[in-house]
């Protein structure tokens, strides 16, 4: 019988939920008092591995892993992610932990602040800096976003291990097609309304990217103002924000099986970061952004102020899919039917920073 695993990273620890059948059970917090900005669930081998980027105000950032679903944790004796001395940089935070595709079962990527990409060849126990991105000729012109200057999104291509797409705040989308040896800005069509040139080659404040389940060259992008779609693996982008109550937001997630299906959580504005219209609503497209529908059944009515951050909206790989989001009010909501119906799973948590889910098939 399959089991659903849900991980909730908060500003004060990690909570882990498991559902076998109809009832959820939760434990935690793991890493009490640490901010957990990133979680990776690696299901590519028979024994799932959890990867966690913890951030202790006293001890600093670290990457932990567990091979028993959180019953015990391992922290490497030497820092898993560390900038080489010649870079003059030190790790502020691990924003993303992304297991690569099935063709590379031991590869895990880490996106960090300062903005850098690290690659692991041992399932996340040690990482090496991907220097060509760190040394990109545009780097001196990258500017930090409101949350800092970070590689916060990593998207790999299951067809081609050498193809990797990253989002950098606030430098935009960069792609490699040669395993990281070279990188190119990939922001054509993505606007930067806050800059003198609203369509620069780089400098966009991309908040999140997700890959479509059917057309693997189709990507969805939530920008700092603007929701976009690419049909050519990121070479160019088209605005698909029409029909949303606001095209500002942080999160975007794709359905794991249904083509042309994605989810966003609109925010009123960059200077008023509350749900659009003060309504707790997820919006779903079933036609790759040509139209959007409001998903509200089971979500709170009346004024609501819970902002959903970039990594706090996700899907599992069930069929029908589970869809989950957490907010800065410390609430976690879940749908077991592709987003049609919702229920409150957790409340009164610390500020929710990231949510990740997976179906474990035993």
Describe this structure in words.
Strands 19, 20, 21, 22 and 23 form a 5-stranded antiparallel beta sheet that branches. The chain has a 4-stranded antiparallel beta sheet with strand order 3-2-1-28, with no helix packed on it. It has 1 helix and 28 strands. The termini are close together. It is mainly β and 362 residues long. The chain has a single domain, classed as YVTN repeat-like/Quinoprotein amine dehydrogenase (Methylamine Dehydrogenase, Chain H, 7 Propeller), CATH 2.130.10.
What keyword list fits this structure?
globular, 362 residues, 43% strand, five-stranded antiparallel sheet, mainly beta, Methylamine Dehydrogenase, Chain H
Question: Whole-number average pLDDT?
Answer: 96
Number of DSSP E strands: 28
Instruction: Give me the Rg, rounded.
Output: 19 Å
Helix content: under 10%
Q: Give the overall shape.
A: globular
**Overall structural domain count:** 1
């Amino acid at each position: 019988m399959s089991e659903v695993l849900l991980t909730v990273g908060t500003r004060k620890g990690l909570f882990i939920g498991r559902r076998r059948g109809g009832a959820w059970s939760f434990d935690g917090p793991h890493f009490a008092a640490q901010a957990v900005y990133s979680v990776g669930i690696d299901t590519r081998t028979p024994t799932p591995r959890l990867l966690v980027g913890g951030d202790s105000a006293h001890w600093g950032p670290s990457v932990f892993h567990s091979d028993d679903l959180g019953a015990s944790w391992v922290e490497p004796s030497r820092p898993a992610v560390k900038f080489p001395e010649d870079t003059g940089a030190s790790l502020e935070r691990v924003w993303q932990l992304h297991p690569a595709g099935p063709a590379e079962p031991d590869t895990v990527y880490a996106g960090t602040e300062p903005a850098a990409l690290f690659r692991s060849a041992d399932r996340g126990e040690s990482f090496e800096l991907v220097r060509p991105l760190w040394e990109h000729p545009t780097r001196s012109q990258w500017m930090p976003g409101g949350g800092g200057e970070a590689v916060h999104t990593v998207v790999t291509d299951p067809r081609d291990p050498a193809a990797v797409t990253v989002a950098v705040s606030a430098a935009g989308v960069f792609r490699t097609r040669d395993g990281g040896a070279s990188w190119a800005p990939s922001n054509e069509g993505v606007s930067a309304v806050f800059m003198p040139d609203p369509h620069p080659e780089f400098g966009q404040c991309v908040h999140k990217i997700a890959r479509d389940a059917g057309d693997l060259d189709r990507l969805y992008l939530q920008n700092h103002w603007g929701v976009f779609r690419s049909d050519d693996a990121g070479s160019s982008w088209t605005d698909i924000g029409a029909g949303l109550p606001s095209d500002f937001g942080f999160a975007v997630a794709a359905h794991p099986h249904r083509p042309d299906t994605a989810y966003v959580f609109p925010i009123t504005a960059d200077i008023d970061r509350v749900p659009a219209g003060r309504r707790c609503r997820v919006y779903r497209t079933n036609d790759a952004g040509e139209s959007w529908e409001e998903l509200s059944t089971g979500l709170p009515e009346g004024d609501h102020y819970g902002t959903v951050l970039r990594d706090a909206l996700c899907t599992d790989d069930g069929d029908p899919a589970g869809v989950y989001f957490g907010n800065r009010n410390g609430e976690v909501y879940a749908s077991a039917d592709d987003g049609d119906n919702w229920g409150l799973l957790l409340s009164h948590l610390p500020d929710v920073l990231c949510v990740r889910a997976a179906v474990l098939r035993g």
